[in-house]
Amino acid sequence: MELRKISPKFTVSPQISVEDIPAIAAEGFQAIICNRPDGEGADQPSFEEIEAAAKAAGLQARYVPVQSGMVKDEDVEAFGDALADLQRPLLAYCRTGTRSATLWSFHEAKKRPMSEILSATKAAGYDMNGVARRIANGGKTPTDTGDAHFEVVIIGAGAGGISVAASLKSRKPGLNIAVIDPADIHYYQPGWTMVGGGIFDAQSTAKTMGSLIPKGVHWIKSAVAAFEPKNNAVILDGCRVVKYDRLVVCPGLKLDWGKVEGLEETLGRNGVTSNYRYDLAPYTWQLVEQMREGRAIFTQPPMPIKCAGAPQKAMYLSGDAWFRRGVLKDIDIQFMNAGGVLFGVKDYVPALMQYVKKYDAGLNFFHNLVSVDGPAKKATFRVEKPDTDPTEVTVEFDMMHVCPPQTAPDFIRVSPLADAAGWVDVDQATLRHKEFENIWSLGDVMNAPNAKTAAAARKQAPTVADNIVADIAGRSAVAQYDGYGSCPLTVERGKIVLAEFGYGGTLQPSFPKFILDGTKPTRTAWFLKETVLPPIYWKAMLRGKEWMAKPEKLKVLVE
After folding, report:
1. What tens digit of pLDDT does each residue of 8-34 get?
2. Which residue among 17, 29, 101, 550 sits deepest, i.e. has the most Cβ atoms within 10 Å of its Cβ?
3. What is the CATH number of domain 4-136?
């Protein structure tokens, strides 16, 4: 007997025997549903035998037989009727459990998100991606085969999506491209650190999506529910189907606020804030301005996160503001980092440590935020230092800046495009999917071992565009991405440590040292961040003008 739990009240199993019934009852099940027709296999017990044994054990039993490979709409309806009549928890079985898992997926389609259904069945060992279109259609058999077709479909209209669309249009103006994204507003997220530091207005970091989609590119304002890569199809919410010749996947990542107990309820109140949200960054500056004494906590979750320097940027700008106001001596700054180092590229650490000392900030490594009690102003951290048993510590605070845990979006994690960790699985040089040759990915959602920053997407977009154009022409990949990422670390108002690096932490400075030494705090780097980079983002990167971002030619290894 092999029990595979899909939900707390519903479990599936491959074929059970009469001898298994007492053990099933002992597990606490109240009912059994048989989804395997009698006589399908020579060695299977009949439902009559299973039903008799179930009744003897005090269990209910229902017979909802489904032909293998043919789950009809009326089967789903009969399954729903059985569920309505039976007590929970219950066990459903067929030959392998697949039909039972499929019936549950279709039955739940009207009340659960697609990603939740795919995730639950995947965890139980059943891949429902093959019937995702029907799940999206509320469990009923869809009648369409595709509502639209484009040469290139791009998932996500963030920095990566709009940039690659613009880069493709600049190379092939006649290319039929669609961008799929449900959002009305596009945000310049690198600017939120400056909003939280009282330098930018929040409004300056937002523009309407419609004003940024490149001319001639179709905008499909919808959310993606699932992928059918073997059919070159994307399934949208509501079961609309978009077909493609080539697909680019760049929806960004998911800020998983709910992973920290109590955090969502207290965000924007009780001194708890985050520069990772547009509406909260102004609250960060409000708290900094109001604070005269007490403890300020700045948190960083386990990697990967977007812009790995952002949690400490908030700390430095806050510390600088308190230093300038003369109240720093009365404020206890604590940096709580789930990782074991201040910054992942060691060349920049000495300059950062100077500011840690200037602001007298406590560094607490291997501290991961697990819960927040906002009204009590207490935060609990799980401490997992190497070679020691995990412990928990609770710290009081007056202000807390939180960087939330981050994952790939749900619809990506449960898709055939994802690796074991849930990120889109690409070749780190060409950014082409490792299994599906007409799919590429860039930005925060793919699994190349680079920093997740807008500067990285600025270099990735032309690489993907070059390789797609080459593929359309019947050629192999021509461009490669070298892992470039940039993190302008705002150590004080007016100075920045401009970290620029590629794969393996290799330094990749954009300027000679005599112009700008990125390992030291400089006013030149601040000028870039405050004055130069925003217009480069809006007027160059999102318009396909690849200033200082020309693709690198693919190096061919000769054996």
Report:
1. 999 999 999 999 999 999 999 999 999
2. 101
3. 3.90.190.10
Residue 460 has pLDDT above 80, yes or no: yes
The pTM assigned to this predicted structure is 0.84
239 is catalytic: no
Give the span between the Cα atoms of 332 and 362, in whole angstroms. 8
Pick the catalytic residue: 34, 94, 239, 307? 307
Q: Which of 62, 2, 64 is nearest to 27 (CA)?
A: 2
Tens digit of each residue's pLDDT (9 = 90 or more) over 195-224: 999 999 999 999 999 999 999 999 999 899
| 487 assigned to active site | yes
For residue 420, count other CB atoms closer than 10 A to its CB: 7
In CATH, which of 3.30.70.890, 3.50.50.60, 3.40.640.10, 3.40.50.150 is domain 149-253+408-553? 3.50.50.60
Helix (H, G, I), strand (E, B) or coil at 360: coil
Q: Record the tokens describing residue 177, joined without a space.
A: 């491209």
Dihedrals phi, psi of 407, to nearest 5 degrees: -140, 170
3-state secondary structure of 427: coil
Tell me which residue of 134, 119, 149, 127 sits closest to 238, measured CA to CA.
Answer: 134
Pull the structure tokens for residue 339: 């990782």
Question: Which residues are bridge partners to 394 per DSSP?
Answer: 380
Angle, CA 403 vertex, CA 402 and CA 405 arms, to 5°: 120
